[in-house]
Structure formats: structure tokens, C-alpha cells
Amino acid sequence: MRAARGLQLRMADLETEMAATPLEVRLAALQQLMGVGALAASGTLNGQPVFKLQSEEEAAKLRELTAEDRLVLQEVEKAGVSAISTKELRYRAGGLPQQSLTKILKRLEARQLVKPVKSVNSGNVKKYMLHGLTPSKEVTGGPWYCDGEFDYEFIANMQKVAMGYVQQRQQATALEVYGFIRDSGLLKSTDMLRPADVDAVLQALVYDAKLEMTAPTIYGDERRFQATPKLASIEDFARSLVSVPKCECLTCRGLEAPGGCYVPCPNLSRWLDKAVGVATASRSS
What we know:
There is one protein chain. By secondary structure, the protein is an alpha+beta fold. It has 12 helices and 13 strands. It has 4 domains: 2-62, Arc Repressor Mutant, subunit A; 67-140, Orthogonal Bundle (Arc Repressor Mutant, subunit A); 150-227, Orthogonal Bundle (Arc Repressor Mutant, subunit A); 231-284, no CATH class. It has helices at 11-17, 23-35, 56-62, 67-79, 86-92, 98-110, 137-140, 152-169, 174-183, 195-207, 231-242, 266-284; strands spanning 8-10, 39-45, 48-53, 84-85, 114-119, 125-130, 145-146, 149-150, 171-172, 211-213, 225-227, 255-256, 262-263. The strands form 5 sheets. It has a 3-stranded antiparallel sheet. A hairpin with a 2-residue loop joins strand 2 (39-45) and strand 3 (48-53).
């Protein structure tokens, strides 16, 4: 076990240190150590099996596990933070019956070796991963999901806080808004949000015409967000464009003055003048 001081034991190390020991004795010792949980399979390296040295606590959890238990646990470990579905587990474990797999997973759960998670990316399908791991963003859906459901209330609150901060400061970067939200105590955990998540919230407000975004300069300045000027004027402008004026000439081809000169429709002219006036006032404010 001297080669396992780095917490891993390669088969090549075992063959080197126990070269004088018959192969069957080595394999029997290896099997016994795995049986009591002192060693656990940990994949391969250069085509050679690698085993991991377990702590006493880990060894206690692995004792008396069957070969099928260990096979399922090994496949769950390979999946890492992406987790693995029961359907894929059955395939990778050699076609285990669903009833047997269910019992194995319950046994591993009871020993806190694996845990179930809902995968938002797979339609809330239940997947399994090692008990001590944190599922990836692809599995949980990131901060915008809670228990597999899209958290509209949380997003609305983040937008409200971000909007208020930008309006108070007149201008702010995504990193500044993130720092304010992180230090405000609004989050259950400071790990819930990343600067990129806050940037996504701010860009959504830009798409909703509630904020404006400045482009980064050639000097490496960060893009900044600022409140849009006089949203009421913009709404009036939009309403003026979608309203349809009444046409007095009926044909919408214009009125003919004496001498055959074309005269624009007076109602349409007033409508256009009003729309241009609202747009000009919105840009100048």
C-alpha cells in the first residue's frame, strides 16, 4: 500500500511492489481490500485499472456492497456533475432489471453514496449523482429555477432591484449591479448568482426597452447600463404610430386642387406631424 500514499493505486504500481508475490495472491488481496471498502475502482490510466484509497468513513459506506451495487456506483461516479438517468444506468450496468436497479439505488441513497436530482435540461427527469457533488447548471437550470420550476418571482425581483440601482446611479456596469445584489442580503446564498447572470438580467431589461446599454470602447471600458429617457414619451410615440387616422378623401390618393395640383390628405398630414414631433421630443430629452 506504500504506492497508495497519493490516495491512488495503479495496477502497475501493485505489480512492481509485489513482483515476488504470485498473481493469484495479489488479485485475492485486491479483492479483499475492495470488499472491506479500503479500495474503490477509479477508472483507468493508460489502459491500466486505477484504484482509490478510501478513508475509514468512506470504507464503512462501501462495506457489504454487492458487485452490482459497486457497478452502479461506479457508473454514477463516471457521470460526475452531469448526473445519469436510470435508463442510461440500466444500459451501462449490463441491462439490470428496473426492479433490481431501484433497490440498488435506494441502498446507495441510504448510505449517502448517491443522491437523486431533477434535470431541467431533460424535462425534470430524475437523475443520480454522487452524494457530495453539486449538479451542473445544465442539470439545475441555474439560478432561474427552483425545484425544477422556472422561478418567475425571483427573476422579477432581480429585475426590480437591478432597475432601481441603475436609476439611482444613473449608470452602472453589470459587475457593479452584481456587487450591490450580492452584498444586499437579498440572496439566500452569495453563490446563487454570478456576474454573468446579472448581465443577462440587465440585457433582458434592455430588450424590454427599460434600460439602454452603451457599447465598450477601444480602451477596454466595460459596457454600461442606463435608464431609458422618458418611457412615457416612447409609449406615446408607439401609440401614435399604430393609430390609424380617418381619411377625408376616401380614396387615400390625395385631394385635387384647382388646376390639377395634388394636395396631401390633411388628416394623414396631421398624424405624421404629431408622430414626428413625439419622436423628436423623445430623442432630445
